[in-house]
Design a protein that fits this description.
About 10% of the residues lie in helices and about 40% in strands. By secondary structure, the chain is mainly beta. The protein is globular.
């Protein structure tokens, strides 16, 4: 199996939904290695898995509002303090 990270963005249809945007980085054979790489990529911010980790202020649990609902969704605050979301998809 192979895995890839996709950034999530507000859906073009609105309605407070999200959709996968551009693929980020390379394809990984191991999902755990991809999560580790994602954690390194958001430094110095922390990466939070929705439904697993306690989320900081500003990061919402958007699961259930994502088209083609991915199994693993992550959120973080970037260096500017803006909320970013990404998911892991099996490719």
């Amino acid at each position: 199996m192979a895995y890839r990270e996709f950034r999530l963005q507000p859906s073009e249809g609105g309605l407070d939904e999200y959709q996968a945007g551009d693929a980020s980085g390379e394809i990984w054979d191991d999902e755990i290695d991809l999560v580790v790489a994602m954690r390194h990529g958001v430094a110095p911010a922390d990466l939070y898995e929705l439904g697993v980790d306690e989320l900081p202020g500003g990061v919402e649990d958007i699961r259930g509002r994502i088209q083609n609902e991915p199994a693993r969704v992550f959120g973080w605050l970037d260096r500017r303090g803006d909320v970013q979301y990404a998911c892991i998809v099996q490719v």
